[in-house]
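tool=predict chain=A
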Amino acid sequence: MSVPCAIALHLCLLAYREGVSRLGRDLMSDYALLVALRLLRHAAVHPPDVRSLRSRRRNHSAPEREAVEAFLGAPLVGGSPHAELVLADDVLDSATVGADAELAAFFRGLLGPGAPSEPPSTLDRVRSVIADSLLHGAPSLPEVARSLAVSTRTLQRRLAAEQASFSDVLDDVRRERAARYLREPTLSIAEVAYLLGYTEHASFYRAFRRWYDQTPAEFRASVA
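tool=predict ok
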C-alpha cells in the first residue's frame, strides 16, 4: 500500500508491508515505488524532483545500484525501516497532463459537500462521454446514446430541448480541449490532434483555423 505523507519539505510515498524483512517482499516494495515514479513522470507536466529511494534491503549489487540511481536521478539508500520514495513536495502543485477540469468540477459537484440533488443535464453528460471517448477517436451520436442508455432519437430530442446539437457539442469539446492541450509544452501538436480524436493532422489544422483563425503553432506561441 502506498501512502502519501508530507514531511518537512518532502513528500514520501511509503510502501508499507507488515512482517519481517524478506527479499521477495522487499523487492516488491521497491518495484512498486519505481512504478509509481514512472507513472508520476508520465502524468505530471513537470517531472517530480526525486530526493532518494529508501529500501529495506541493506545490500545492493553495484550494477543494480547504478541502474536504479540512474533511473531515479537520486541516491538509493539501504536499511530503511520501510520502503520510501522521497520527493520534493512541489510535485503536489504540478499540473497533470490531460487533466480534465470539466470532469473534475462535475465530480466535485456530485460528490462534494452541499452537492446539488439535481442530476447533471443531458448536455453535461454528453460532453463528459465525448471527452472520455476522444482518445479512441471521435464518438458518433449512436455510440454516445448507447453509453447513456437511450435511443439516438431520444438523445437528439433531449439535446434539442437544451438548444444544442450533437455535432456542435462535439465541436465545442474539441475546441476547448485543443486550447487546453496546446498550453501544455510537453505535448506535441501531433499528440494534441491524436488526443482530440483526429486521425488526420490536416483535419485538425482545418478545424483549429476555423475555431481560432490561426494555426496550432501560432496559438501555442501566443500563449507561451
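Residues 1-8 have pLDDT under 50 and may be disordered. The CA atoms of residues 209 and 215 lie 6 Å apart.
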